Amino acid sequence: MKRTVCTIITLLTIICVVGCGGGNRRKAEMVKTKAPRVFVPAIIPSAISDPEARRVYMCEHYWDRVNLADSTFFAEIDTAQMLQAYMAWIGNYMNPNDGTYVGKFMAKAAKYPHSLRYFSMLAEKVLYDPNSPLRSDELYIPVLQAQVESEWLDKYEKLSPQYNLNLALQNRIGHVANDFRYTTGSGRSGMLYGIKAKYTLIFFNNPGCTMCKTIRDAICASPILTKLIENGTMKVLALYPDELLDEWHAYREHIPSIWINSYDKGTVIRNKNLYDLKAIPALYLLDAEKRVLVKDSTEVGYVEFVVGNLEGIAQ
Fold first, then answer.
1. Global pTM?
2. Distance (Å, rounded) from C-alpha 285 to C-alpha 293?
3. pLDDT tens digits for 168-203?
4. Where are the alpha helices (DSSP H) in 94-190?
5. Residue 107: how many other CB atoms lie within 10 Å
6. Rounded CA gap, 235 and 207, in Å?
């Protein structure tokens, strides 16, 4: 694919040169293509040796070499390189459950319309895209707040970030989850808050979804989760949030009988935006009071890690 693209570019270049006269060709040879500008992150002072202090320094100073007031920088910078830099900032230094430093930086970027829009774009790709491994509502919330509060965006430009902010503020880590009604294949219904267990694992899934099967198998293969499920310490609520019930009924036998296999009758969860279901599958781990311990995850290993720490189980 790369070779094809390069060939096309080469052919277009030849056509452009041939199409010009001799004088124009000479002028074209004198024109130098301006290379894109390059971003260089801050360097941690050698006097800072403590690992946590070094992490915090980069959380606060990573972008210090960017002149946020310079609109030409954002027009000339290599966006692919900036995207990689943003991913490194988030992935190497940020606590995914603490948006403090992202908020501090966005407060600086929001002073200028070009930097607000540019860093909001990077954040959307890294922190919001369902396919991003660094997706995090807690880190994205301050980005959305900066957009909603900005003097540079009009009311129409604020509609999307306001909608996404309302969703992101639902079911946050450490807060109680939204309650909802579920219905089983027998027609029996119940409420999430009616499930009595030390832990409740909500598994939003679709029939025939490859990743859903992978997560289901990973839960079943986990010694830690299997033990907790079998002794009643953890209940798994497998919930289908869509409308094609024939597919759901046909797939029911693939869900372990010890789980609560259910669907959302009337698709109330989607209609009322009780949970952000832009990406399925999704795992939510709740404690006995239905406070959120893990939000919108696809990592069974992370669920094991959280539960293992709380239960004192060596991993």
1. 0.81
2. 5
3. 999 999 999 999 999 999 999 999 999 999 999 999
4. 100-109, 113-123, 137-148, 159-168
5. 13
6. 20
